[in-house]
Amino acid sequence: MHTFRPPYFHRNCMSEFMGLIRGEYEAKKGGFLAGGASLHSMMTPHGPDASTVVNATTRELRPGRVADGTQAFMFESMFQLRLTKWAAEHKQRDLDYYKAWQNIPITFNPDRI
Predict the structure, then answer these.
(1) Which of 42, 60, 104, 107, by CA, is between 20 and 30 Å from 83?
(2) The organism sits in which domain of life (predicted)?
(3) pTM of the shown model
């Protein structure tokens, strides 16, 4: 009861590089397409978009399955990774990436602790 359900907004002490090979990424449906990738350097906040958070925290708490036909990868490194100039200036980069988190509802209630 009152258990926080992933997916969640978080930070890592590692750099995290993630990509979607095929299918649909459950934490940002429609906004993260096959062939896309993201890089979150150490201690950079990141996580699922607002609609995914609302769905994950309001649905019935029971086991679930990621969509069939989805294949993704993730690498973590203790080293600080950075984009190449080509990637940082590419016309297809998502300049509005941060907006995915703007409407995440604040649900923390210290009275439940």
Answers:
(1) 104
(2) Eukaryota
(3) 0.74
